[in-house]
Amino acid sequence: MTKLTFQLNVREYNSVSGVRGPLIIVPGVSDAAYDELVEIELPNGEKRRGLVVDSQLGMAIVQVFEGTTGISSAKTVTRFLGRGLEVKVSEEMLGRIFNPLGEPLDNGPPVIKGEKRNIYGDPINPAERIYPEEFIQTGISAIDGLNSLLRGQKLPIFSGSGLPANTLAAQIARQATVRGEETKFAVVFAAIGIKYDEFLFFRKFFEETGAINRVAMFVSLANEPPVMKILTPRTALTLAEYLAFEQEMHVLAILIDMTNYAEALRELSTAKEEVPGRQGYPGYMYTDLASIYERTGKVKGKKGSITQMPILTMPNDDMTHPIPDLTGYITEGQIVLDRNLFNKGIYPPINVLMSLSRLMKDGVGAGKTRDDHKELANQLFASYARAVDTRGLAAIVGEDSLPEVDRKYLLFGELFEKKFISQGVTENRSIEQTLDIGWEVLSVLPETELTNLKDWQIKKYHPKYRGKT
Amino acid sequence: MEEGRIIRVSGPLVVADNMREAGMYEVVEVGDLRLVGEVTRIEGDRAYIQVYENTDGIKPGEKVYRTGSPLMAELGPGLIGKIFDGLQRPLEAIASLTGSPFVARGVKVPTLDRKKKWHFVPEKTLKPGDNVEGGYIIGRVQETSLIEHRVLIPPHVKGRLKELLPEGDYNVEDPIAYVETEDGNEIPITLMQKWPVRVPRPYKVKLEPNEPLLTGIRILDTIFPIAKGGTAAIPGPFGSGKTVTLQSLAKWSAAKIVIYVGCGERGNEMADELRSFPELKDPWTGKPLLERTILIANTSNMPVAARETSIYMGVTMAEYFRDQGYDVLVVADSTSRWAEALRELGGRLEEMPAEEGYPSYLPSRLAEYYERAGRVLTLGMPERFGSVTLASAVSPPGGDFTEPVTSNTLRFVRVFWPLDVALAQARHYPAINWLQGFSQYVDLVAEWWSKNVDPQWRQMRDLMMSILIREDELRQIVRLVGPESLGEKDRLILETARIIREGFLKQNAYDDIDAFSTPQKQVRMMKLIVNFYNRANELINKGISIKKIMDASGDIIAEIIRSKAVIRNEELNKYDELEKKLNGVLDTLSKSVGA
Question: Residue B355 domain-assigned?
Answer without folding.
Answer: yes
